[in-house]
Amino acid sequence: MQVGQPSRTAMATAQARAYHQLADEPRIFTDPLAVRMVGEQAARDNPFDRGVDPDLVRRRRLFLAARSRFAEDTVADAIAAGTRQVVILGAGMDTSAYRNPHPRVRYFEVDHPDTQQWKRNRLAEADIAVPPSLSFVPVDFARDSLAAALARAGLDRDAAAVFVWLGVVVYLEPAAIAETLRYIGGQGEAAIAVLDYSYPPDAGQRARAKRVAAVGEPWISFFTAEQMRAELETAGFTEIDDLAAADAVRTYSRESAAAVSISGPHLVRAATRRTS
Q1: Shortest CA distance to 182 belongs to which of 229, 222, 227, 231?
Q2: Is 200 helix (H, G, I), strand (E, B) or coil?
Q3: pTM over 0.70
Q4: Half-sphere exposure of 173 (CA within 13 A, CB side)
């Protein structure tokens, strides 16, 4: 990403989530703030989608919607079970903290300082209030200490927490991924993590990899399901659910596997102890 500018890929993801609200019925994921966050014109004009097969764009958009729905369902279940802390790692333009109906549940948005400042400006422009239950935590994952930043923000390491980590892993070096997973797995009472990762790109994904690399945000790390499970188990997770992209979409859609097939991405929910 460019210094002083928000992450281009985070913005593209927000545009896809917003366009899902305008273009897809039935919706997989409903977010009444998504279009306000990015603006309707931007939602309809995602630069990463120009010149790309519209069906592939749609399938990717449905996966991003399913990814957000999966994360928010996981958070809702954890809150219902008593968890009162939610950490959004690489928050981008995520709006879940602004739709949180539970004033006693604390949200922590962790992101690069430039992206976070752009978001705060955009929230003010869109007249979206920042709730007192939300703390902004500026962190550069490649250089800063996540543990120190969250400690300063007031995260209780002895209490249960849900960590949502979407659209980030593929951009990090393996050591940073392992360190973050160990930190999450060390949450005192219990930890739940929702994250996504990608298999090495095939021909269909290489074109997108080149596009994101061209804006300074290259894909770096890839895993198989077996490799990701090993990383999670090493970090202390004992309950691991792993869904390929098409399976994630079909969880919330009646469309066929062929209609929503997209190679590469996987979605994971992992816990350090059984949560049900």
Answers
A1: 231
A2: coil
A3: yes
A4: 7
